Amino acid sequence: MARIAIFPGSFDPITKGHEDLIKRALPLFDKIIVAIGINSEKKYMFDLEQRKKWIKQTFTFEDRVEVGSYEGLTVNYCRQVNAGFILRGLRNAEDFQFEKSIAQMNRELAGEVDTLFMVTHPEYAAYSSSIIRDIIRHKGDVSKFIPNTIQIEDDF
Ligand code: ADP
Q1: Is 138 an active-site residue?
Q2: Burial degree of 2 (CB within 10 A; 0-12, 13-18, 19+)
Q3: Which pLDDT belongs to residue 7?
Q4: Residue with CA nearest ligand 1 atom 16
Q5: How far is ligand 1, taken at its centre, from the CA of residue 139, in Å?
Q6: Which of 23, 91, 107, 133 is catalytic?
Q7: What pLDDT was estimated at residue 20?
Q8: Cα(99)–Cα(27) distance, rounded to whole angstroms?
């Protein structure tokens, strides 16, 4: 059976931290689906298609990385795409505290799905989509924080 993981998040926008984590996790899985969770109560800076496009551009040459989106429970999406694993990144202790409960609850909801955490590369530990959005709002240069293959200024 294929080992499929989903990497859920908002990716608003994708950062070098996300890119690094996906690349490091690839040897563990046959396929990683970068899964954009859609929460109707949340306001995003970039629309879904734009966020998907940037993720696809980042992994143009890696056919084991796919991009998807879902509404509702993450474990339901896992079942839909036959994923046995949820991949999440840990930047700090706050991430761990928060993620631990979600992982435990998800396991109660779907015992066949397990969550795998990977610790962020120290170089990217401070990179967050929300800080990057703030820099973009104030017309700062974010090129060093986002994957080399994408250009936000041109698209936004
Ligand atoms: P969410 O809104 O669910 O936190 P994000 O798009 O911010 O979604 O993050 C998606 C996943 O990527 C999460 O597991 C998060 O911990 C991880 N992540 C966020 N920033 C980084 C980073 N700089 N390095 C590695 N992983 C990260």
Answers
A1: no
A2: exposed
A3: 98
A4: 89
A5: 23
A6: 91
A7: 98
A8: 23
Find, among 84, 86, 75, the residue nearest to 110 by Cα.
Answer: 75
Phi, psi of 86 (to 5 degrees): -115, 125
Residue type, 40: S
Q: Which of 16, 18, 51, 52 is catalytic?
A: 18
Pairwise CA distance, residues 123 & 32, whole Å: 23
Q: Distance between CA 26 and CA 109 in Å, rounded?
A: 26
First to last CA, the chain: 41
What confidence tens digit (pLDDT) does each residue in 58-75 have? 999 999 999 999 999 999
16 counts as catalytic: no
Sign of CA dihedral 144, 149, 119, 45: positive
Query: How far is residue 26's CA from residue 85's CA, in Å, rounded to a whole number?
Result: 12
Q: Compute the 3-state secondary structure of the chain and give helix, strand, coil in percent, each to the nearest 5.
A: 40, 20, 35
- For a pLDDT cut of 90, what percent of the chain falls above it? 96
**Full-prediction pTM beyond 0.90?**
yes
Query: What sign has the CA pseudo-torsion 113, 75, 96, 47?
Result: positive
Among 131, 156, 109, smallest CA distance to 16 is for 131
